[in-house]
UniProtKB/TrEMBL annotation:
Pfam families: DUF2867 (PF11066). The chain crosses the membrane at residues 82-104. Keywords: Membrane, Transmembrane, Transmembrane helix. InterPro entries: DUF2867. It comes from Demequina litorisediminis. This is DUF2867 domain-containing protein.
Length: 114
């Protein structure tokens, strides 16, 4: 849908799979900030009525670490607010799936290192 609206679309190549730097593209996102092992700030490059970021982060905890993910959206006008409300149920599903996949991959990677 993003491509139809004149956006960048879902799939763009990555410079490398394991190392990110500011300016790299990841699907619909552009890397704005990297704190290795802790935080990643991604700015959405899809066509939306506003500006959007995704902020995945890892924090130390008693059990090892905790993964946290935050979506930020600054709507542009009434259209932006309506867009966010309309997309809210889908974002819940998409982001929950994303969290589950990231945590599963991290746990699998961690079990291979032991």
């Amino acid at each position: 849908m993003d491509r139809l609206a004149g956006g960048v679309g879902l799939r763009r190549g990555r410079r490398t799979l394991r190392h990110l730097r500011v300016g790299d593209a990841i699907d619909l996102w552009r890397v704005e900030r990297v704190e290795p092992g802790h935080l990643l700030l991604l700015r959405a490059e899809m066509r939306v009525p506003g500006r959007a970021w995704l902020e995945p982060a890892v924090e130390p905890s008693e059990d090892g670490c905790t993964y946290r993910q935050r979506a930020v959206f600054f709507p542009r006008g009434l259209t932006g607010r309506l867009y966010w409300l309309a997309m809210l149920p889908f974002h819940g599903l998409v982001f929950a799936g994303m969290v589950n996949r990231i945590v599963a991959l991290a746990e699998r990677e961690d079990s291979h290192e032991m």
